[in-house]
Amino acid sequence: MTQADNNQPSEDGEELPFVSHLIELRDRLLRIVLVVIVIFLGLVPFANWLFTQLAGPLMAHLPEGSSMVAIDVASPFFTPFKLALVLSIFIAMPMILYQLWAFIAPGLYQHERKRTLPLLVSSTALFYLGAAFAYFAVFPLVFGFLTSTAPQGVEVMTDISRYLDFVLTLFFAFGVAFEIPVAVVLLVWTGAVKPKTLREKRPYVVVGVFVIGMLLTPPDIISQTLLAVPMWLLFEVGVFMGERFAPKRDEEDSNDSGHEEYEPPTDEEMEAELDNIEAEEEGRKPE
Questions:
Q1: pLDDT tens figures, 262-286
Q2: Which alpha helices (DSSP H) does 92-200 contain, by range?
């Protein structure tokens, strides 16, 4: 390929930067995969111990002499490895978000960078906080309720793979639920909604979080309340923080101060104004 052919794709100024962005994205994805693999290899020797710790909230409420079971032949081998892999991604989340941030940061303005970085850090911390809240506060109550509702003569023996899927779903649900402040701030920051509107919709939000708590948790009032109340409190935190991220609009400021919004004159008004100016000039001419 000649030198002219090499320069031809970059004449429009689009293809060459796009390729360079793809290369950078590939490099950052490889770094993410490498970090996850390293953490996974470090957790593999402790996979069975990790699953034992994860099963602790359920084992504490199983009847004496009961235990978990493995229905599939390969479940005792693959289930702890699956937990180790998910936990590796969970631990590597700060690194993953940093690589994503480093990829998009050059395309942001300086004031956008100052606001986006705290949102990334807070979203990571809130997701971890939601998962920890689910493990230490929700799991004991949920499993205590579920094991106590078994009919007489039914022995509770949970499959390990299904148990892992169940707790991962709850981890994800509570982690996402704790992202409410970040979501509210983003909505206010982009101008999709105003903090005043959110405050006016507070009664609907309270009802909505209890409905979500009912859908994401077992059918008992305790676990439903444990999810709904934090969601409502986090919504209030998001509204409070959203006021600091709300965009400043000249039109809203002028409306709040009592000034009317400017409207351009119509064609008839322009013609009448020109006629008045011409009449005034003719009247000023000396006779």
A1: 566 676 777 777 777 777 766 655 5
A2: 93-104, 110-133, 139-148, 160-177, 180-189, 195-200
